[in-house]
Design a protein that fits this description.
The complex is a heterodimer of chains A (166) and B (367). Chain A is mainly beta and 166 residues long. Chain A contains three helices and seven strands, in the order αβααββββββ. Chain A is globular, with a radius of gyration of 15 Å. Chain B starts with a strand and ends in an 11-residue tail after the last helix. The chains are: A mainly beta (166), B alpha/beta (367). At the A-B interface, loops of A face helix 5 and strand 11 of B. The structure holds flavin-adenine dinucleotide. Flavin-adenine dinucleotide (FAD) binds next to helix 1, strand 4, helix 4 and helix 7 of chain B.
Chain lengths: 166, 367
């Protein structure tokens, strides 16, 4: 039984509208990180925008549009990471350390990770990509969705999208 | 037999019914909600995930929290809204203008409302396959009720049939409860639910097998596994049958409107595949062909809670207006514009086409 890693079955295979990377120059020097949204299907949904305190996730002309981002305004605050019902928002801070990036991702599973612990970092089909160190665990909206900050090798920021806590 | 009088009887206390009750009570109507279940909220009480949609319709808030918001809203109308739980409306006697209802096993009663809003929601479809009657084969609704209402997991290893939103979301909720989801099978060449819901279970390692279905459940007294097969474009088997080990098979293969009361009333109905079954014709105020009966939510066509809440407001306003009450000015326009904006995209296309087949400007031409 093997599921193929196709877009049609829920795996992002390439950049497309609603799932784009930030511009490299700005991203590399932007402290706090920039948002990465992986929301490539037009659906009637806009909490990423309504939760964004700076307007970096541009207001939707049509609620069915995919999100568009004004990276100049993004502070990497990760409010959208906490709010998105599709768990489709991530923040990546490339300035975190030498060859080390900080990934802020949503987490709604048990057990909770311990601060300072090492966790398995999973790719888009659940494959183990690398290990990461948990730097912080926040609950910005006090609604049980955690935003976990995990430090990972910078070259893996395009691949890691979940963590597994043993 | 006790006979209860009320301005507006709302049948079903899900998001559509609660919204209808709130809109009507706000206009000054005395409302009674009859709900079969032991609590209000309908499908919402089982939804532990955050909802999609717009801020006005509480997007980004978990389903069961939305139920609380709606319950708080009707509570503010005090005794103007009364609720009868554990009460199933069982029949409509038009010539006498009464409905009959059962509260638990104890009381059979009559309710004489001036107007009725039917918001009875939906029921699950099932698919036939050998052994689908052995313990361990569940509908997704039962799995959710067990897990999220009663705190009981259905098993340890679940095979999910159907990659629509329900199959995808219930898979995620099972994983949150510590249950392994062995695979999600989907007969179509692409997932039916929102892409992001699929992405969130895939990144946790759950395979989604497109063009796959279940051939039979395995086991005697209990499910021990399933035979699964791959399908071609004509839905015929290709390749070998595979065996999967699991103790639970969960069917998430679609819903259909709970329309029995509408049939019994004699509302003009139409089979609309895009709305997932027989649904009543309705005017823009959600009135049916019966001038005393309105309806809203999944019973009007399978859609979403966001739409059900807006339709509920429309129905509540419509019923209140017909009683000569003062309704919020511009209310119908406001709710229609919200409904239209939710339905404007590609995923709303089937709903738009479906609804256009049953929405009428007047009743003269409806067969
Ligand atoms: C797993 C899952 C995930 C979902 N996720 C989302 C989402 O993210 N966003 C979204 O917008 N929607 C979502 N939905 C859809 C949403 O839950 C439904 O569209 C919505 O609940 C429909 O509301 P309703 O009031 O029409 O019906 P229901 O919620 O089904 O309520 C109907 C009520 O009527 C009662 N009833 C029925 N017949 C009678 C009778 N004869 N007498 C008395 N009471 C009766 C029932 O007990 C029930 O409580 C999801 C649904 C499921 C199953």
């Amino acid at each position: 039984m093997k599921a193929s890693a196709t877009f049609e079955s829920g795996v992002l295979t390439d950049e497309r509208p609603g799932a784009v990377k930030p511009p490299r120059d700005l991203w590399e020097k932007h402290k706090g990180g920039l948002v990465l949204v992986e929301c490539p299907q037009r659906i009637p949904c806009n909490p990423c925008n309504t939760s964004c305190p700076t307007g970096a996730i541009v207001p939707f002309e049509d609620i069915n549009n995919v999100p568009t981002i004004n990276y100049e305004k993004c502070t990497g605050c990760a409010m959208c990471v906490a709010k998105c019902p599709g768990l489709a928002c991530f923040v990546v801070d490339l300035t975190w350390g030498e060859e080390i990036a900080l990934l802020k991702l949503p987490y709604e599973m048990l057990p909770l990770p311990q601060k300072g612990s090492t966790v398995k970092c999973l790719g888009r089909t659940g494959e183990i990509v690398c290990e990461g160190k948990v730097e912080n665990i926040l609950e910005p909206l006090k609604d049980r969705t955690k935003v976990v900050h995990v430090a990972i090798p910078s070259d893996k920021v395009g691949d890691v999208r979940a963590i597994e806590v043993a | 037999m006790r006979e209860l009088k009320t301005d507006i009887l709302v049948i079903g206390g899900g998001p559509a019914g609660l919204s209808a009750a709130a809109a009507a009570a706000r206009a000054g109507a005395e409302v009674t909600i009859a709900e079969s279940d032991l609590h209000l909220g309908g499908q919402l009480v089982k939804q532990s995930h955050k909802f999609f949609g717009s801020k006005e319709e509480y997007a980004g808030i978990r389903g069961f929290e939305i139920a609380k918001i709606l319950k708080d809203e009707i509570a503010q109308y005090g005794s103007r809204v009364s609720t009868m739980l554990n009460t199933t409306v069982s029949g409509y006697y038009g010539d006498e203008g009464v409905v009959t209802a059962m509260t638990g096993e104890e009381e059979y009663l009559r309710i004489a409302p001036k107007r009725i809003v039917i918001t009875s929601g939906a029921q699950e479809r099932l698919i036939p396959f050998p052994n689908n009657d052995i313990p361990g084969v569940y509908g997704a609704g039962a799995v959710q009720t067990l897990m999220n209402v009663y705190g009981v997991v259905p098993g340890k290893r679940v095979l999910m049939i159907g990659a629509g939103n329900i199959g995808l979301i219930v898979s995620y909720q099972l994983m949150q409860a510590g249950v392994e989801v062995v695979a999600i099978l989907e007969a179509m060449p692409k997932i039916g639910g929102y892409w992001v819901h699929a992405a969130k279970v895939r990144r946790l390692g759950v395979p989604i097998l497109l063009r796959h279905s279940i051939k039979r459940a395995l086991g005697g007294d209990l499910v021990t596994g399933a035979e699964i097969l791959e399908l071609d474009d004509n839905f015929s088997q290709v390749g070998e049958t595979e065996t999967v080990e699991c103790d639970t098979i969960c069917l998430a293969v679609g819903l259909t409107p709970t329309n029995e009361l509408l049939w019994q009333v004699g509302c003009k109905m139409k089979y609309v595949p895009f709305l997932c079954g027989h649904v009543p014709f309705r005017d823009k105020e959600m009135r049916t062909s019966n001038e005393k009966i309105w309806m809203a939510g999944d019973v009007s066509g399978i859609e979403e809670a966001s739409a059900a809440m807006i339709e509920g407001r429309l129905a509540g306003l419509g019923a209140a207006k017909s009683l000569g009450l003062n309704i919020e000015p511009g209310g119908f326009e406001k709710y229609w514009s919200r409904l239209n904006s939710l339905r404007a995209g590609e995923v709303g296309e089937k709903i738009r086409v479906g609804v256009s087949a049953v929405v009428v400007d007047g009743w003269a031409d409806v067969q």
